[in-house]
Design a protein that fits this description.
Elements: E1 3-7, H1 12-23, E2 27-31, H2 41-49, E3 54-56, H3 63-72, E4 77-80, H4 87-92, H5 94-114, E5 119-125, E6 136-137, H6 150-168, E7 173-179, E8 181-183, H7 202-210, E9 217-220, E10 232-233, E11 235-237, H8 238-250, E12 255-261, E13 267-268, H9 269-280, E14 286-289, E15 300-301, H10 304-310, H11 318-331
Parallel strand pairs: 1-2, 1-4, 2-3, 4-5, 5-7, 6-15, 7-12, 8-11, 9-14
Antiparallel strand pairs: 10-13
Helix pairs in contact: 1-2, 1-8, 3-5, 5-6, 9-11
Bound molecules: nicotinamide-adenine-dinucleotide and UDP-4-deoxy-4-formamido-beta-L-arabinopyranose (WQD).
Residues 85, 87, 125, 127, 152, 181, 200-202, 205, 217-221, 231, 233, 269, 292, 295 line the site of UDP-4-deoxy-4-formamido-beta-L-arabinopyranose (WQD).
Length: 334
């Protein structure tokens, strides 16, 4: 089985993907500078799979250090999760985001080229669709228009860079995966989303409210043109998302291929709260709040291309995600 280099492998999605890679027999090494994660998560991976990947604590912008890793090991595939991802922070510190995400990716691509590694899977985001007339997003839609923050721009720009590299090199295979809203964690509750700092996304905030670390969830916008007035998103269980990477790894082909990874179903903020309350058996303190600037009413994936071409579709539900989140919360500080 080929050896896989996972950048950002101590992060939320990376660690779950490593579990699935191990389950399929892949050998995995990790590069992460630990700016938004902890090395101990790999102990959790070992508890689940019986294998611990080697961690290189390296910043992907450090060309020399990255080069050293590529010269010591032979990789068949790189899965590239490493990047900064906090939308508001990217508005405050645009240069940091462009530098980290874009320079880091260019370094990585240069190392891959120099060492004859031709396959990469990249973590993109539904954010590249920017503002669209329709709520159901498919891969044929125009991207890069109406993106409201530098984080989203970095994802769009990296996609363009990858497409150009694929055009220049007939051996190069890249699969761009556009994630919708990942939630949940491994069913064991051993690993889960544990970001450094104050959370900004809905589920990590719900987790903090459940733990009493934040007094209440602000429901941001109750006057959207949706059935219950709150925003609708496509929440995908992170284990389904991780399995999407295995499907992508098994279907790599020359050129650039792009897939949405989502469930195809939208869920409102109020429905998320109700699902969490059902799973926990307790009321979650909530308060109505104004819309968040830049938010849209409703988006969800058309995941049919991934189903057709990668033979992948989601299997887990929002209720599964809530159950698994509670398991994680019962043994971790949110
Ligand atoms: P995460 O922050 O948990 O993981 C990213 C990891 O990358 C972290 O461990 C961090 O320490 C590492 N990292 C960042 N910059 C680095 C650098 N210069 N060198 C080495 N390591 C570096 O985030 P996640 O939720 O697991 O997301 C993984 C990827 O998926 C990111 O690229 C993110 O933009 C993308 N994505 C995430 C979401 C989401 O909602 N979680 C949605 C769409 C796309
Ligand atoms: C979900 C819903 C909020 C917080 C962001 C990024 C996107 C992607 C995923 C990486 C919305 C509502 C939230 C709160 C709330 N990341 N909400 N109260 O905005 O869909 O996407 O994360 O690529 O790029 O933009 O996710 O989890 O922040 O919000 O009511 O305290 O929850 O308004 O409807 P979003 P989110």
């Amino acid at each position: 089985m080929e050896r896989v280099l996972v950048t950002g492998g101590t992060g939320f999605i990376g660690s779950h993907t490593i579990v699935e890679l191990h389950n399929k027999g892949y050998e995995v090494d990790v590069v992460d500078n630990l700016c938004n994660s902890k090395a101990e998560i790999l102990d959790g991976v070992e508890k689940i799979t019986g294998k611990k990947p080697e961690l290189f604590k390296v910043d992907i912008r450090d060309k020399e250090a990255l080069e050293k890793i590529f010269s010591e090991r032979r990789y068949g595939l790189v899965i590239h999760f490493a990047g900064l991802k906090a939308v508001p922070e990217s508005i405050e510190k645009p240069l940091e985001y462009y530098e980290n995400n874009i320079s880091g990716t260019i370094n990585l691509l240069e190392c891959m080229k120099e060492h004859g590694v031709h396959k990469i899977i990249f973590s993109s985001s539904a954010t590249v669709y920017g503002t669209q007339e329709k709520s159901k997003l498919d891969e044929t839609m125009v991207t890069g228009q109406g993106i409201t923050n530098p984080y989203g721009e970095t994802k769009y720009m990296i996609e363009e860079i990858l497409k150009d590299v694929a055009d220049s090199d007939p051996e190069f295979s890249c699969t761009i995966l556009r994630y919708f809203n990942p939630i949940g964690n491994h069913e064991s509750g051993i690993i889960g989303e544990d970001p450094n700092g104050i959370p900004l996304n809905l589920m990590p905030i719900i987790m903090k409210v459940a733990k009493g670390k934040i007094p209440q969830l602000q429901i941001c916008g109750t006057d959207y043109p949706t059935p219950d007035g709150t925003g609708i998103r496509d929440y995908i269980h992170v284990v389904d998302l991780a399995k999407g990477h295995i499907a992508a790894a098994e279907h790599m082909k020359p050129g650039a291929s792009i897939y949405n990874l989502g469930t195809g179903r939208g869920t409102s903020v109020r429905e998320m709260v109700t699902a969490f309350e059902k799973a926990s058996g307790k009321a979650l303190p909530c308060v109505e709040a104004p819309r968040r600037p830049g938010d849209i009413a409703e988006v969800y994936a058309d995941p049919s291309k991934a189903e057709r071409e990668l033979n992948w579709k989601t299997e887990l539900t929002i209720d599964d995600a809530m159950r698994d989140t509670l398991k994680f919360l019962s043994s971790h500080e949110a």
